[in-house]
From TrEMBL:
Domain NAD-dependent epimerase/dehydratase: 4-207
Name of the protein this chain belongs to: NAD-dependent epimerase/dehydratase domain-containing protein
Organism: Providencia stuartii
Pfam families: Epimerase (PF01370)
Record pathway: Bacterial outer membrane biogenesis; LPS O-antigen biosynthesis
Lineage, top ranks: Bacteria, Pseudomonadati, Pseudomonadota, Gammaproteobacteria, Enterobacterales
CDD domains linked: SDR_e
Record family assignment: Belongs to the NAD(P)-dependent epimerase/dehydratase family.
PANTHER family: DTDP-D-GLUCOSE 4,6-DEHYDRATASE-RELATED
């Protein structure tokens, strides 16, 4: 196997993927706009903006590229939502052009199950993901490629950047703040661990997983925000009281080490 290029290597999934591949002694090159809080192992990284045509030329210097895993992306849907559209679509189109011109065998784009949402939740992020999926599907048809879009749900793990739903709720619990979300507390959400995402990508890279133009990650559990809050409260209480773990459900067992991680993280921050 040749070199694996991972864009978004400073992010949660990209950073974990880099570390995983390095442990497998697979050569990687990370592409990022900023330094990463996730990478504990040293690795080759290029700091570039993927929306600048000239910057893509730097990728041509990388030899023996076997695959490109495109984890980079913008997700904001506020007043800067047009930046989300621009970055996601422009970067993906330039990387596809690079992959096709260099006859790179594997291309994996991290999409989102939010492309399937109804009009109520339609936004710049889901639109950009859908457009990028269509670009990949077109390239497969036009250039006889076997490139993939992998639709993700809510990813959880020991994430040091506290913008995801689990660390957000954990911060509210530990700091005694009200939990305010854009969604209803009764809305059910699919969850998958970052380890499962990384392993799925690895199996696709190794050709050990059935693959198609568009694939969806298999979620591990699906619960409402209210149920999630109650589970996190229960696990925080167990940690605070040094209680045993007897009688925990399968989901609670999965989440216990994550809750333990955030308890110590937020306590160190003085919450």
């Amino acid at each position: 196997m040749g070199t694996i290029i991972v864009t978004g290597s400073s992010g949660f999934i990209g950073g974990n993927l880099i570390n995983f591949l390095n442990k497998k002694n697979i050569e990687t090159v990370g592409i990022s706009r900023r330094e990463s809080p996730y990478n504990t192992n040293s690795f080759n990284i290029k700091y570039i903006d993927l929306t600048v045509d000239e910057n893509i030329d730097l990728l041509y210097e990388i030899k023996n590229v076997y695959a490109l895993v495109h984890c980079a992306g913008e997700s904001r849907n506020d007043s800067n939502c047009l930046n989300t559209l621009y970055f996601n679509i422009k970067s993906t189109s330039l990387l596809l052009k690079y992959a096709i011109e260099n006859n790179i065998p594997k291309f994996i784009y991290l999409s989102s199950k939010k492309v399937l949402v109804d009009e109520l939740y339609f936004n710049a992020y889901s639109l950009s993901k859908k457009i990028c999926e269509d670009m990949i599907r077109y390239c497969n048809h036009k250039y006889s490629k076997n490139y993939h879009s992998l639709r993700l749900c809510n990813i959880y793990g020991k994430d040091k950047v506290i913008t995801r739903i689990i660390p957000f709720i954990m911060e509210c619990i530990i700091s005694n703040k009200a939990i305010k979300t854009k969604s209803s507390l009764l809305e059910e959400i699919e969850f998958c661990s970052v380890d499962e995402v990384v392993n799925t990508i690895y199996l696709i890279l190794m050709g050990e997983s059935k693959s198609s133009d568009v694939m969806s990650i298999k979620y591990e559990f699906k619960i409402s925000i209210l149920e999630l809050k109650n589970i996190l409260l229960k696990l925080v209480s167990i940690i605070d009281n040094n209680s045993n773990l007897e009688g925990l459900s399968a989901v609670e067992y999965k989440l216990f080490p994550i809750v333990e991680f955030y308890c110590y993280l937020f306590k160190d921050k003085g919450f």
